[in-house]
Amino acid sequence: MNKSDVLKYLKDISEEVKDLSLKVWNNPETSGNEKEAANLYREILKNYGFKIKEVDEMEHALIGEYGSGSPVIAVLGEYDALPGLSQNLDTKFNPVQEGAPGHGCGHNLLGSAALGGVLAIKKYLEETKKSGTIRFYGSPEEETLIGKVKMIKTGAFEGCDLALSWHPMNANVAIESTFLSNNSIKFKFHGISAHAAASPESGRSALDAVELMNVGANYLREHIIDSARVHYTITNAGGAPNIVPKEAESWYFVRAPHRKDVDDITERLVKIAQGAAMMTETTVEYEVLGGCYEMLGNKVLFDLTHKNMVEIGSPEYTEEELQFAKTIQESLEPKLVEAEVKKFVRSGSEKTYLYEGVVEKEKSDSVQITGSSDSGDVSWIMPMNLFLTATWPLGVPAHSWQATSSSGSSIGIKGMLYAAEIFSGMMYDLLNDPKLVEEAKAEFNKKTENNKYVSPLR
């Protein structure tokens, strides 16, 4: 059984993989609530002869393992949806249920592609009796940037040699390093309530402290590195306006390219909170809800990813799919679409709706992902790759109704199946060339020799 046989088998089971993706898309569940999705994955993996391992204290996390011996390859899957992004399969805003969740980050595609890849390689291991172990990691709570961080803390990834990952997006590209490191922190201020008109002097406003902290944080922006991000919401602003607020709370995200930068900025933000408490004669306590690392690049796996993307070849689209993409684009800000089209499409090309082909290796660093992911943490405990495939029209931003709609469309399914093929091709190469595994591990060990992973979960 060679690589082409593996890819042919994947095509044979593609309807089952597609069906899984659409079931998850039609039943979106937010982070920490992915009961039905996790059970769908468990059922399929069991039916295909995988051994299921549960993860301590994580009801919706799972590991499906098949094979024996080295190398041990982890394939990362996710299936959580985003709140408020409910959307029918439509080219106009049309929620299934107003305010309900939807797959605006394409995780219905993300997990099913990973599963498709391991099912195909399971068949290869079964047929050839070759040494090697594959593990599918069902990873919940990615949108809250905490799922894989928790899984690492429980030891769920112990024994793995390397990890493979991908994400739905607008283009087909291998990524060497990306993501911003992140901290998620809530600041709770405690004051003294009083009648805001009759005896304001008796009160100490927790809301004043929140507002002063936010002002301080905005001044802090001028004095941190350009690539850092600090953003917040007020999650509790008090009650009636005639009562001095006794309790108030703000929720901050701190992002930066490197974990050390996030830690340094967080330390300064805590001082601002303490200063706001002093100015208002309130008290403050803070809780780090979670955090994650940036992705540590691995050149060996980057090269292998790109090679397989080119070898396999990207999807082609029907006129109906191109028209769907065109109509979706028309719902977006034209300047944003134009900027992305110029970035990816050669001048003079008529195909400006969907990306076709594979971004050249030399240009891959022009594709920047300024969000964060708990997959980054995995890259700090073993060698890891990342690639994107075109599952949405050019110009569509993640976390939008347009992304939700596209993730349930035939465009999304084609990008998902392409990703499953890339996974299959990579695992085939890794199982048949032990030198690749050793080189990837050697590169990882060199990069982390004096910079070991420390969990953001205290």
Query: What is the helix tally?
Result: 14
Estimate the helix proportion, in percent: 40-55%
Taken in chain order, the helices and strands follow as HHHEEEHEHEEEEHEEHEHHHHEHHH
CATH topology of the largest domain: Aminopeptidase
Shape: globular
The strands making up the biggest β-sheet line up spatially as: 1-2-4-3-5
Number of strands: 12
Structural class by sheet pairing and helices: alpha/beta
List the helices and strands and how they pair.
Elements: H1 3-12, H2 14-26, H3 35-47, E1 51-55, E2 58-68, E3 72-78, H4 107-128, E4 132-139, H5 147-154, E5 162-164, E6 166-169, E7 173-175, E8 181-190, H6 206-220, E9 229-236, E10 247-256, H7 259-280, E11 283-292, H8 299-312, H9 319-329, H10 334-344, H11 375-378, E12 386-390, H12 401-407, H13 410-432, H14 434-448
Parallel strand pairs: 3-4, 3-5, 6-12
Antiparallel strand pairs: 1-2, 2-4, 7-12, 8-10, 8-11, 9-10
Helix pairs in contact: 1-4, 1-13, 2-4, 4-13, 6-7, 8-13, 13-14
Describe this structure in words.
The chain has helices at 3-12, 14-26, 35-47, 107-128, 147-154, 206-220, 259-280, 299-312, 319-329, 334-344, 375-378, 401-407, 410-432, 434-448, and strands at residues 51-55, 58-68, 72-78, 132-139, 162-164, 166-169, 173-175, 181-190, 229-236, 247-256, 283-292, 386-390. The protein has 14 helices and twelve strands. Helix 4 links the parallel strand 3 and strand 4 (132-139). The chain has a five-stranded mixed β-sheet with strand order 1-2-4-3-5, sandwiched between helices. The model has no long low-confidence stretch (mean pLDDT 96). It folds into two domains: 3-179 and 295-448, Aminopeptidase (3-Layer(aba) Sandwich); 181-292, Alpha-Beta Plaits (2-Layer Sandwich). The N and C termini lie far apart (47 Å). By secondary structure, it is an alpha/beta fold.
